[in-house]
Specification:
Length: 120
């Protein structure tokens, strides 16, 4: 199992935690009952699964993230690049732009990212 790959329900569950943290596990079960019609045990099973991947932690009934949603997204991107393009961002961009042309605005944003990285 890839550490940063989430199924559809795992992603929805993670989004609930990120939107409500810190959240009590009791409140989390109530939210999931309302949103997904889950039983308490289903919520705890899902929470344990994501805690085992070091994305969240349940400390004495208070659930918080170990990674922000943004950091998690960045880690997903890195894992994707590593698995599909051997970690090569240029290979990814070449493949991506073969099928979808970049707008002038997108090109400028990418150029700004490169320029800012050079300055650091």
């Amino acid at each position: 199992m890839e550490k940063y790959k989430l199924g559809d329900m795992e992603q929805k569950f993670a989004d609930i935690i990120w939107a409500n943290e810190p959240v009590s596990s009791r409140t989390l079960t109530e939210i999931c009952e309302k949103e997904f019609a889950w039983k308490r045990t289903t919520t705890y099973t899902m929470l344990k699964r994501l805690c085992d991947r070091n994305i969240f932690v349940n400390n004495n009934g208070t659930v918080t993230s170990l990674m922000s949603k943004e950091d998690f997204g960045a880690a997903q991107g890195e894992e994707f690049l590593d698995n599909v393009f051997n970690g090569s961002l240029p290979q990814f961009l070449a493949a991506f732009t073969r099928r979808k042309k970049l707008s002038a605005k997108e090109i400028q944003k990418i150029q700004n990212l490169i320029d800012n990285y050079k300055e650091e």
